[in-house]
Write a structure and sequence with these properties.
By secondary structure, the chain is mostly helical. The chain is 42% helix and 3% strand. It contains 6 helices and 2 strands; from the N terminus they run H-H-E-E-H-H-H-H. A two-stranded antiparallel sheet has the order 1-2. The radius of gyration is 18 Å and the shape is flat. The two termini are 18 Å apart.
Length: 200
């Protein structure tokens, strides 16, 4: 079985088979954010945008049935955001089917990370709804979205395990890792990705 690696989404293009590098190791650290921001915007506008593009290169909101201004969409960020809403309990919830709270499926992180099919299906649906209805940026009509979400899960779980170990958590499974949204700045993301030992 191939080793699962953490996908680096800031210093590289996260699109499969692309891997364009956005940072330059010969540039002083303090200039990384500006350089990466500029190169990401140029790349995303050139490759994904229709028309003039945006300042950041990231997709703009789409109101269906409008045509999206970009082929890019919020796949990775939506997976993270949905994961942070899941039940934090280490106890499984999918013994007799999912619970419903306020009309929304409550999925256990434990069930998803352990590969329980019903939990994974529920998670994929929630991630797709976030991409299409909550974020609704870029190509929300993307064919095969469910498969793309599933394909990213092993790398996402590995990223949680790596982050748990780096933070010194007793639980190294990734279940107890809590995303700190105050550290969601570009400079912090770059520093974290550069600190990872393996290459993309």
């Amino acid at each position: 079985m191939d080793q699962v690696k953490v996908t680096k989404l800031i210093i590289f293009c996260g699109i499969k088979l692309c891997g364009t590098l956005f940072y330059d190791p010969n540039v002083p650290d303090i200039l990384y954010p500006d350089l990466v921001r500029k190169r990401r915007a140029e790349h995303f506008n050139r490759v994904f945008q229709h028309g003039t593009g945006t300042e950041t290169g990231l997709p703009e909101p789409v109101n269906a049935p409008e045509r999206p201004s970009s082929e890019y969409y919020t796949l990775h960020m939506s997976i993270v955001k949905v994961w942070t809403t899941l039940q934090h309990s280490l106890e499984a919830t999918h013994t007799a089917g999912p619970d419903q709270v306020g009309g929304r499926t409550v999925t256990s992180k434990l069930d998803v990370i352990n590969g329980k099919e019903q939990a994974i299906r529920d998670f994929v649906v929630q991630a797709r709804k976030h991409i299409c209805l909550e974020s609704h940026r870029g190509n929300i009509y993307q064919h095969g979205l469910d498969d793309e979400i599933r394909e990213l899960l092993p790398s996402f779980f590995e990223a949680l395990r790596v982050a748990s170990e780096r933070d010194g958590l007793d639980d190294k499974s990734g279940l107890s890792y809590v995303h700190d949204w105050t550290k969601n700045k570009l400079a912090e993301k770059i520093a974290y990705e550069l600190s990872l030992k393996e290459t993309r």
